[in-house]
Amino acid sequence: MELTPAESQALWLSARVALFATAGCLPIGIAVGWFLARRNFPGKWIVDAMVQLPMVLPPVVPGYFLLLLLGTQGPIGSWLLSTFGIVIAFTWKGAVIASAVMAFPLMVQPVRLAFRMIDVRLEQAATTLGATPWRAFLTITLPLAFPGIVAGSMLCFSRSLGEFGATMAFVGNIPGETRTLPLAIYSFTNVPNGEAPAMRLALLSILLAVSALLVSHWINRRAERLLGHASLRDDHAAN
Amino acid sequence: MLQIDVGFRRGTFELVARTNIGTGVTGICGPSGCGKSTLLGLLAGLLKPRNGTLCFNDEVLCDVARDVFVPPWRRHFGMVFQDGQLFPHLSVRSNLLYGHAHLEAAERRFDLAAVAQLMEITPLLDRRPAQLSGGERQRVALGRALLYSPRLLLLDEPLSSLDDRLKQQILPYLKRVKDETGIPMLYVSHSRPEVDYLADRVLEMEAGVLVTG
What we know:
The complex is a heterodimer of chains A (239) and B (213). Chain A is mainly α and 239 residues long. In chain A, 77% of the residues lie in helices and 0% in strands. Chain A contains eleven helices and no strands. The model of chain A is unreliable at 230-239 (pLDDT under 50). In chain B, strands 6-5-4-1-2-11 form a six-stranded mixed β-sheet, covered by helices on one side. Classes of the chains: A mainly alpha (239), B alpha/beta (213). At the A-B interface, α6 and α7 of A face α2 and β7 of B.
């Protein structure tokens, strides 16, 4: 189907926002997921709750707080503006931040679970072979957690694509700047004769989500083969 | 060679070890749960003692009072775990070379081909750990520790996950390592015949206590 300029604008903006949000969540999600999986410290439940919070709050609430903090009048927002001349609120960068905050819990959970499943003794074995903890993490822990990291990225990306409430509250619904697919669909449903374009965008969203699923499935298949899971079937042949 | 004088506590379990370990193969024997694996963990640096000192020749590995602790990756002791602990995402070859690859050329006492031949695992080099039998897995684990050219080899019940037939098959490999490399070994097991077959001397451990001399 041929896309109108407004449609392709919303599509590419959505893809860009979701990609940037996922890329931003990835390193922080790995660090936080590792900490929650492997370290016990006083007040851990507070960190845990903070990470989960955006998932259980009405999305408008984090969006509103982001506006208070990062808006041009807010403490961080005014500092960014006066020091670097950067404006976050009501720009696509703000949409990325809103999506990232909302999708972060979905990144952390599978990553944390993946780290938990890895036998610590494998890392210990690596250190008795001369590997520093950092090398053991990069060569043993991280590759073994890879399927969980892919799953987390996938959930994070999909949640970013669907972000609505926080985005609306923080950066509004500005065509070409912050009007992602969900906001565009919402806008069309509010105007006369908007049903057909809304349906086209809905189909587009399905297409985008399914492509993301297929990509993550493909990555996981490759990862499993590299990690040796797929070879279990050859096991009997070997013995 | 290795002077042990450490105390360790975890929950209600308490371990006291005071002894000297010489070259050759030293067996440590005792019932399950007597703290043998904990002791090896302390020697490898995977656990920190609560008090005491640990010295290898003239090098202080641990001195709690002076806050000295050499981490496992700087002790250069090899360790073979009960269930091998092979890295599942790496081929047998990469597993074998994991420690070896980061050694200085001067530190390398063996090469891959020689160790693979000694352990008779040359045909398995391109396999994954999941494709190995239990006996093959332990031979790879032993080969991996050997290729790291350790100053001391710690063996934590390396045969306990194998049945008797396989044990009989692996023991000669351990004997070969002893005879052909001369690396000092500390062999921990609950099975006295196993220890008697390999060890030059045997220490008994009971209820967390290993005190000699």
